[in-house]
Design a protein that fits this description.
The protein is of the alpha+beta class and about 375 residues long. It folds into two domains: about 100 residues, 2-Layer Sandwich (Double Stranded RNA Binding Domain); about 260 residues, no CATH class. It is built from 13 helices and four strands. A four-stranded mixed beta sheet has the order 1-2-3-4, covered by helices on one side. About 35% of the residues are buried.
Length: about 375
């Protein structure tokens, strides 16, 4: 967290300085899931014109929110402690409000399919089968992107969940009933809709954070008009980090780490997600699908609506960029070694009762077939 302290000529007494340090430490624990550069605290302590009354202003900025607390008192230390306690209360209320509002709006709406009952039943059977196979992968892709957003300070923990993202993708796919489509084609539709939902939330988060940077780069046209609309222009933008991620600042001895430690070390996991956040959107998504989720170049190309050759180029660009990031900190990795690191993120624990989740989803969208009583 970036911290600025402004005082008048009198400054802070030593005991007040120690109190400020303790309060800042307490605040940082509350913000520990944010990237340090995403949070800023400005502390101002001065006196009124008569030099009798102390005034304190705390201005806390986090992604999407700015909290300001102002207090006055004749006691400098009591003033500072009261101001921080008030800031903690405001922060806790804000977090509670955000979580409640998100829970209340993330509700699947019922879907009515305009088709005969037998056709709907056939579609339901096929769609359930596909969800049972694809749901774990959909959740992992959503989790990868949300963790990346959190590590880069674009979203706060709990602001969105993988379940909410996947539910929206399912709701966008289910109404396009066509039992004649193959399972792989429907699975690709699910992933394309998932990426569209992720891109929409990512774009909103960047705009709120003031870090939305257009990239003037021409891309290969997509094959069909409806697919162009599906992906949207958000894939032509990416966030330019304020500074290079310094690996040595994250882990004490970068050269000593190995992929086998990844699943037990949260600091390594956070580092890899922060490094992913330095990639342009298309490179990151191609790398995520191919390296981290094990899709072939052909499968990833169908999801991203680009050629397999283009996917391969995106993956290699991403790999080269990440290798250079490690190299800046004195860690020389071959492409295979680097990919082994990131591939293990797929195995991070993620409890998901797939059958129960599928039944829950169908219960929420509970359609009414045409002609049903």
């Amino acid at each position: 967290m970036r911290i600025e302290i402004h005082t008048d000529d009198h400054g802070l007494r030593p005991d007040v300085e120690r109190a400020v340090e303790r309060k800042i430490s307490k605040l940082e624990r509350r913000l520990q899931h944010y990237h340090p550069d995403a949070c800023e605290l400005r502390i101002t302590v001065d006196r009124d014109r008569k030099n009798t009354l102390f005034k304190c202003t705390l201005d806390l900025k986090v992604p999407g929110k700015n909290l300001v607390v102002r207090k006055e008192s004749f006691d400098q230390r009591g003033l500072v402690e009261d101001a921080f306690d008030a800031l903690f209360r405001e922060w806790d209320k804000y977090r509670l409000k955000v979580n409640k509002s998100l829970r209340s709006r993330k509700v699947l709406k019922p879907v009515r399919l305009e088709a005969a009952t037998s056709e709907v039943e056939n579609w339901d059977a096929l769609f359930r089968e596909i969800l049972l196979e694809q749901l774990p992968g959909l959740y992992r892709v959503a989790r990868h992107e949300l963790l990346n957003c959190q590590m880069m300070g674009l979203m706060e923990p709990g602001q969105l969940t993988p379940e909410e993202i996947v539910d929206e993708a399912i709701l966008a796919t289910y109404p396009s009933m066509d039992p004649d489509k193959g399972k792989m084609e429907i699975a690709r539709m699910l992933y394309r809709n998932l990426i569209q939902v992720l891109n929409r939330y990512l774009k909103e988060a960047r705009e709120k954070a003031g870090r939305f940077v257009p990239v003037e780069e021409e891309t290969r046209p997509l094959p069909e008009k409806e697919e162009t609309v599906l992906l949207g222009e958000e894939i032509l933008h990416f966030w330019e980090p304020d500074q290079v991620v310094k690996i040595e600042d994250e882990i004490p001895d970068p050269a000593a780490v190995n992929p086998a430690e990844l699943l037990e070390r949260e600091d390594l996991q956070k580092l890899l997600y922060r490094l992913l956040g330095t990639l342009p959107d298309q490179e990151r998504m191609a790398f995520l699908l191919v390296v981290m989720e094990g899709f072939t170049l052909e499968e990833a190309g169908m999801i991203l609506n680009v050629s397999p050759e283009n996917v391969g180029e995106l993956v290699e660009k991403a790999t080269g960029h990440l290798i250079r990031q490690f190299s800046r900190s004195g860690v020389e990795l071959e492409a295979g070694e680097l990919k082994a690191f990131f591939a293990q993120l797929k195995d991070l624990p993620f409890a998901l009762p797939v059958e129960e989740e599928v039944e829950s989803i169908f219960a929420e969208i509970r359609h009414t077939p045409l002609g049903a009583q």
